[in-house]
């Protein structure tokens, strides 16, 4: 391995705001603490959670804050206490403060790092990791989806949406997809959606017609405020309503009595809780990578930007005009 530089490029914020607050800075290369490896990042994933920390919807633990919640790359150094990953191992990881992915190097707890199989590219690993683990654990654990159940995916042409559709197809669910344009609905159809509903139409009445009045057994909603009231109307008896995003704004406080009429299970899950132990992380990551390698899930990359253009990536993501994953190339 070549000698490590003293400084690196990273995208940081020193205050909350729009994409313009993203700064392309020179910062020190991280030093390793016990249990950590140093990863030279190849690709970093761009996710809605990044925009939440940037805007202040989620409070930053410290300022300045280096951005980014996932990346792929190779291990270039390891603390003496770590023997699991040899230098040169290709890896993927989800980051959390103080670690971050919008940087040339990241110090990561070895327990949070997984090796990338030879059959998977570094681009695919970065594109699938956080959103793929999110979608797969939400289907398996939050939604407890069974073959033949009615499911609905909002924003089904987005990064998480396209993964949810493909994964729900792999478990044998009946899939209703919503999206805002015919082009996006066609994409959802390509990935396996059985029924298509334009989100500008009367979703509730169309879903009632599609399901024969049964309603939806599991709703996956990354849109938030704009769709939540409709979700409560569309959910089936004993249905699972998984609200996991705020693309249209945060869901207002909920009167818990609204859930009683149908015995609704309302959840606001976070993927980290499903992969917090090493056995769960390895199990779900292995299942996820197998879905990609076996071609049951296609990784769609919308665009790859240079690190310095992270602000444009955020603008494009928040425009809701993208289909698939946005990556930064380090």
Automatic annotation (TrEMBL):
Keywords: NADP, Oxidoreductase
MF terms (GO), sorted A to Z: mRNA 3'-UTR AU-rich region binding; NADPH binding; quinone reductase (NADPH) activity; zinc ion binding
Residue ranges constituting the Enoyl reductase (ER) domain according to the UniProt record: 17-328
One Pfam family matching this protein: ADH_zinc_N
UniProt xrefs under PROSITE patterns: QOR_ZETA_CRYSTAL (PS01162)
Gene3D superfamilies, sorted: Medium-chain alcohol dehydrogenases, catalytic domain, NAD(P)-binding Rossmann-like Domain
GO cellular component, one term: cytosol
InterPro entries, alphabetized: ADH-like_C (IPR013149), ADH-like_N (IPR013154), ER (IPR020843), GroES-like_sf (IPR011032), NAD(P)-bd_dom_sf (IPR036291), QOR-like (IPR047618), Quin_OxRdtase/zeta-crystal_CS (IPR002364)
Top-level taxon: Eukaryota
Name of this protein: Probable quinone oxidoreductase
Keyword match Nucleotide-binding: no
């Amino acid at each position: 391995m070549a000698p490590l530089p003293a400084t690196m490029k990273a995208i940081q914020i020193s205050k909350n705001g729009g994409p313009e607050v993203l700064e392309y800075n020179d910062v020190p290369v991280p030093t390793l603490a016990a249990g950590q490896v140093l990863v030279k990042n190849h690709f970093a994933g761009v996710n809605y959670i990044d925009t939440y920390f940037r805007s202040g919807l989620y409070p930053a633990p410290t300022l300045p804050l280096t951005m980014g919640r996932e990346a792929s790359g190779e291990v270039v150094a390891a603390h003496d206490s770590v023997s699991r990953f040899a230098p040169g191992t290709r890896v993927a990881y989800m980051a959390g403060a103080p670690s971050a992915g919008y940087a040339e190097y990241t110090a990561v707890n070895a327990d949070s790092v997984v090796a990338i199989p030879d059959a998977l590219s570094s681009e695919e690993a970065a594109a699938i990791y956080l959103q793929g683990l999110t979608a797969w654990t939400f289907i398996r654990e939050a939604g407890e989806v069974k073959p033949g159940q009615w499911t609905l995916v909002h924003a089904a042409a987005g990064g998480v949406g396209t993964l949810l559709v493909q994964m729900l197809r792999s478990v044998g669910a009946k899939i209703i997809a919503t999206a805002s344009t015919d082009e996006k609905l066609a994409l959802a159809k390509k990935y396996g959606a059985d029924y298509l509903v334009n989100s500008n139409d009367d979703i509730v009445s169309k879903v009632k017609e599609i399901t024969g009045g049964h309603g939806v057994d599991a709703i996956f909603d990354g849109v938030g405020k704009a769709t939540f009231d409709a979700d409560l109307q569309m959910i089936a008896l004993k249905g699972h309503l998984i609200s996991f995003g705020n693309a249209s704004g945060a869901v207002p406080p909920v009167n818990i009595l609204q859930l009683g009429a149908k015995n609704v299970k309302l959840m606001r899950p976070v993927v980290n809780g499903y992969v917090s132990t090493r056995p769960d992380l390895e199990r779900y990551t292995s299942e996820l990578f197998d879905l990609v390698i076996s071609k049951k899930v296609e990784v769609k990359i919308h665009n790859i930007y240079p690190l310095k253009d992270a602000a444009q990536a955020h603008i494009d993501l928040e425009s809701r005009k993208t289909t698939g994953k946005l990556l930064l190339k380090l």
